[in-house]
């Protein structure tokens, strides 16, 4: 071990930062987070440092260059100047007084180094490479940042607030089990989902009963899997996908996204071929409730966003009625994904001041939509499930005054390696579908913004 890892209490303690640039400003910010009293010595200050000094929140400034006397009464010292001689002098003087000293980016002059930090106060995770590779430490940090929920701090604070009571109620082995159950199970999940009051109540009940928290009831995670590219999943979606016992998914969830689900989770396919639902909606609703009541963590994974043409509302209504806990995680909806990966901004100051998401699903051969509103200029209309009814859509928009020359696009399997984008006009769209044998899932975008694709198209799927 080149360095001994410790967490230092510097609350209200005087700390010295030598240097007045941006690097020094970052160090000052860090010290202030730990409530230190910071003295800065520098001939002049960067704008951000000057602002900190002016705000007077624990920072003072002495104009000048470093002098031995600056070390008087200090707890630790950081040198962040671009003058190698000054940095060496600070290091030597601090070492002579046995003061911990850090010289930015010069490990040989340091008696301590500053780790890369993941801050979920009061939880702090420090990553160090002994000065070998700060970049590697930062890369590790970003991986961990993604994996550790931002609410970990709240969970730790909640645990702290019950610590004494749990200690008084349970013997050591029981106590360990109690905390393991709280910190890994549904109670922690409630905190991550912002349901702190419920979590608190569960802990209270478990303490009162003198037992580990009751876990007979599972939970449903209604998660938006996005339009296909797994890189578009949210951190929360990724985390829940890793801890599910069973996944209930349908056709729109891409294979690449399914790859991200915990390997040993049971997988239940509930279909949803167009007009040929593999499992009726009511049955899916009941299935989710039943699995959760068996104590399982159920991942209900849907394509795009669960609340946009996803029937997510219906599914959790049943859960709410039956008292089954659930949480909803948004996903990138097809319109957002197809627009970005197709180089077609949905709004643009020159062309479109609003955007409407519409279902183009045919019911009894027709569509009951407000066509005159959809045919208005200066807007974009994104049709979901519109392929089968495309002729009706184009005809109706033209009947209500939209020009046959209005630019329009078909985005098939948007954001995936199979993405294909075909652009034309309202008048030519049906022929485009036939010529290219366009298949679902395809999003239809109608509006002047489609012309921007020539300039803004950036995504080149392999083999396109
Ligand atoms: C039942 S809706 C579900 C929408 C989903 N909840 C969402 O937010 O994207 C299915 C329709 O979404 C559109 N869609 C979904 N994924 C798509 C993709 N990767 N590319 C193009 N369109 C997509 C298609 O219009 C498809 O018919």
Outline of the structure:
The chain is an alpha/beta fold and 464 residues long.
Describe this structure in words.
With 464 residues, this protein is an alpha/beta fold. The chain is 37% helix and 19% strand. The longest helix has 18 residues, at 152-169. It has helices at residues 22-33, 47-55, 84-96, 134-147, 152-169, 172-184, 186-192, 196-209, 235-243, 255-258, 281-293, 312-321, 334-342, 371-374, 390-399, 429-436, 453-456, and strands at 14-18, 37-42, 59-63, 76-79, 101-103, 116-120, 123-127, 219-224, 246-249, 266-269, 297-302, 326-329, 354-359, 379-384, 407-412, 420-425, 442-446. Strand 15 (407-412) and strand 16 form a beta hairpin. The strands form 4 sheets. The chain has a 5-stranded parallel sheet with strand order 3-2-1-4-5, with helices on both faces. The structure holds S-adenosylmethionine. The site of S-adenosylmethionine has 23 residues, from helix 13 and strand 17.
């Amino acid at each position: 071990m080149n360095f001994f890892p410790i967490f230092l209490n510097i609350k209200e303690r005087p700390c010295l930062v030598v240097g007045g640039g941006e690097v020094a400003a970052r160090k000052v910010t860090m010290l202030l987070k730990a409530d230190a009293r910071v003295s800065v010595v520098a001939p002049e200050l960067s704008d951000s440092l000057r602002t900190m000094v002016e705000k007077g929140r624990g920072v003072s400034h002495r104009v000048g260059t470093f002098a031995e006397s600056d070390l008087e009464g200090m707890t630790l010292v950081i040198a962040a100047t671009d003058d190698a001689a000054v940095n060496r002098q600070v290091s030597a003087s601090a070492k002579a007084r046995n003061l911990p000293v850090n010289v930015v980016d010069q490990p040989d002059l340091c008696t301590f180094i500053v780790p890369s930090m993941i801050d979920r106060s009061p939880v702090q995770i420090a990553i160090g490479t002994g000065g070998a590779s700060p970049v590697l430490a930062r890369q590790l940090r970003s991986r961990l940042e993604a994996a550790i929920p931002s609410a970990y701090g709240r969970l730790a604070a909640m645990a702290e607030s019950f610590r004494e009571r749990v200690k008084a109620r349970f013997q050591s082995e029981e106590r360990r089990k109690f905390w393991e159950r709280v910190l890994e199970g549904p109670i922690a999940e409630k905190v991550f989902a912002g349901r702190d009051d419920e979590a608190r109540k569960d802990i209270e009940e478990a303490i009162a009963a003198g037992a580990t928290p009751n876990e007979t009831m599972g939970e449903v995670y209604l998660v938006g899997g996005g339009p296909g590219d797994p890189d578009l999943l949210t951190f929360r979606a990724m985390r829940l996908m890793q801890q599910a016992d069973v996944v209930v998914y349908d056709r729109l969830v891409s294979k690449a996204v399914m790859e991200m689900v915990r390997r040993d989770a049971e997988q239940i396919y509930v279909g949803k071929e167009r007009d040929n639902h593999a499992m009726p909606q009511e049955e899916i609703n009941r299935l989710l409730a039943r699995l959760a009541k068996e104590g399982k963590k159920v991942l209900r994974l849907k394509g795009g966003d669960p609340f946009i043409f996803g029937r997510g509302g219906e599914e959790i209504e049943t859960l709410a009625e039956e008292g089954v806990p659930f949480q909803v995680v948004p996903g990138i909806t097809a319109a957002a994904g197809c627009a970005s990966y197709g180089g077609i901004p949905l709004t643009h100051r020159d062309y479109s001041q609003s955007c409407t998401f519409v279902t183009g699903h045919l019911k009894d051969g027709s569509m009951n939509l407000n066509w005159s509103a959809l045919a208005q200029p200066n807007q974009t209309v994104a049709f979901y499930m519109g392929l089968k009814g495309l002729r009706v859509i184009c005809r109706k928009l033209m009947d209500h005054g939209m020009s046959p020359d209005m630019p329009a696009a078909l985005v098939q399997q948007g954001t995936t390696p199979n993405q294909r984008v075909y652009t034309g006009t309202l008048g030519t769209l049906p022929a485009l579908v036939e010529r290219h044998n366009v298949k679902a899932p395809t999003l239809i975008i109608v509006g002047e913004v489609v012309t921007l694709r020539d300039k803004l198209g950036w995504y080149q799927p392999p083999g396109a």
